[in-house]
């Protein structure tokens, strides 16, 4: 008569094999990207090729970066490929995808929570000039996640190195894009990471690491450099546009000389900066001509929205955004919260169930260790000295990171000028001003642009990237 152990062994073996092959199937499914031809809120089939997926960048902690890859709407086999890094503190790259330079934008209309926010085709998308690989990085941004909490403990430098790991794996699975000219791009805080990451990629190329990408350069928009430099440049900028008086400007210049305006070391400078910050608080820093919006004008929409949210993952929304006025630039971020937390949206994008209980525009729970990449300007110097192309652009109405500070550190590189300061044009009118150096570094302003130049000036933004990335003069 068979013992209980003898009966159990074959059953246990079968159970083990089922678990083993199920795990292999899950791993295989995880590795396969999702080809998306329709998205909730958009009427009809997408007029471009969209691929989404995950890439594991930290095996020990199970950390995975989520990406959106959109092929060029021109000639994807020859057009450049741009890696785009988000700005902010662990903010989703979806801001760039759906609010700034991607081929879809939200329709700005009243939202009641009963349907998914609607999308429209964006005719001035940068995908008309290049394929773009949008990455939710670092871990914790957007739909990127870690199975262990330790996986979220990454800063700018470690996060950038994880993106490099991402690229190695992604290009291994997509070798057809290796010949395409490749650029690293980012805006705001992503503009700090971009030159650092570009240099690390260039070092891999020099070391003969494979797969070898066809790195041509990098581009940064309204890039963060350091708090002292970025915030310090607000003083002359806001004086120039009439936000602070001559008297306050002169007092700051006299009494804060040698001091870091973010941490004044004498009483008069501290008092001056308190007055300065009160006046700065009266304008919208990301675009001085737009309405000042604190996003506290009204509460969340009524709770009928719950029926669209993945309850099996979240129960109730824990961080619903306040509803800004439709006149506020932040209204698009408000819509993106409800669009991204919609069940159908997550299914369409191939989001792993249980990976992110609630999508938020920026992950406030985990500090990104801002500033752990030191000497940002040196990375710009190193990359351009190696012959790589660089575009540094600024919306000229951005008071958050004013063009004056950016122009100042670009000038501090002391490279010879090859094309002196002049206007660049679109349709017979100046679209901004530009300066080019002999080391392939171009600085340009976008007239009327804010902290994200293509968000406020999409037509000029597309003209800027199209000309520069194709090697044409602005």
Automatic annotation (TrEMBL):
Signal sequence, renumbered to the chain: 1-31
Gene3D superfamilies: 3.40.50.12670, alpha/beta hydrolase
A GO term for molecular function: serine-type carboxypeptidase activity
Pfam families assigned to the protein according to its UniProt record, in alphabetical order: Peptidase_S10
Domain of life the protein comes from: Eukaryota
Any one GO BP annotation for this protein: secondary metabolic process
Keyword Signal: yes
Record's keyword terms, sorted: Glycoprotein, Signal, Zymogen
The family this protein is said to belong to: Belongs to the peptidase S10 family.
Protein name: Uncharacterized protein
Organism of derivation: Lolium multiflorum
């Amino acid at each position: 008569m068979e013992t209980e152990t003898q009966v159990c062994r074959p059953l246990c073996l079968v159970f083990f094999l089922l678990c083993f092959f199920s795990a292999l199937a899950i791993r295989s499914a995880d590795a396969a990207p999702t080809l998306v031809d329709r998205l909730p809120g958009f009427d009809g089939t997408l007029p471009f090729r969209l691929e989404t997926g995950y890439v594991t960048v930290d095996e020990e902690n199970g950390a995975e970066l989520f990406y959106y890859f959109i092929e060029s709407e021109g000639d994807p086999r020859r057009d450049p490929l741009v890696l785009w890094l988000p700005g902010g503190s662990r903010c989703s790259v979806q801001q760039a995808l759906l609010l700034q330079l991607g081929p879809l934008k939200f329709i700005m209309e009243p939202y009641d929570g009963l349907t998914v926010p609607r999308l429209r085709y964006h005719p001035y998308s940068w995908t008309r000039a290049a394929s773009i690989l949008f990455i939710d990085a670092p871990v914790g941004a957007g739909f990127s996640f870690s199975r262990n909490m330790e996986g979220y403990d990454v800063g700018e430098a470690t996060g950038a190195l994880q993106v490099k790991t991402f690229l190695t794996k992604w290009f291994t699975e997509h070798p057809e894009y290796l010949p395409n000219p490749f650029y690293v791009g980012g805006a705001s805080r992503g503009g700090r990471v971009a030159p650092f990451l570009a240099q690390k990629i260039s070092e891999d190329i020099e070391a003969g690491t494979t797969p070898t990408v066809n790195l041509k350069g990098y581009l940064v928009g309204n890039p963060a450099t350091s708090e002292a430099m970025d915030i310090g440049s607000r003083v002359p900028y806001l004086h120039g546009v009439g936000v602070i008086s001559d008297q306050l400007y002169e007092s700051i210049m006299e009494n804060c000389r040698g001091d870091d305006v973010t941490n004044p070391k004498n009483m008069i400078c501290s008092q001056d900066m308190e007055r300065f910050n009160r006046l700065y608080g009266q304008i919208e820093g990301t675009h001085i001509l737009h309405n000042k919006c604190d996003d506290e004008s009204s509460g969340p929409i009524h709770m009928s929205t719950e029926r669209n949210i993945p309850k099996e993952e979240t129960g109730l929304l824990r961080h619903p955004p306040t509803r800004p006025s439709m006149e506020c630039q932040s209204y698009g971020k408000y819509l993106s919260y409800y669009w991204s937390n919609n069940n159908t949206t997550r299914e369409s994008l191939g989001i792993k169930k249980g990976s992110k209980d609630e999508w938020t525009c920026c992950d406030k729970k985990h500090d990104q260790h801002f500033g752990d990449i030191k000497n940002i300007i040196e990375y710009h110097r190193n990359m351009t000295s190696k012959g790589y192309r660089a575009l540094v652009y600024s919306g000229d109405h951005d008071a958050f990171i004013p063009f004056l500070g950016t122009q100042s550190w670009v000038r501090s590189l002391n490279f010879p000028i090859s094309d002196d300061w002049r206007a660049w044009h679109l349709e017979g009118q100046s679209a901004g001003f530009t300066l080019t150096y002999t080391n392939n570094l171009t600085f340009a302003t976008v007239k009327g642009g804010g902290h994200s130049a293509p968000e406020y000036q999409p037509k000029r933004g597309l003209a800027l990237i199209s000309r520069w990335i194709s090697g044409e003069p602005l």
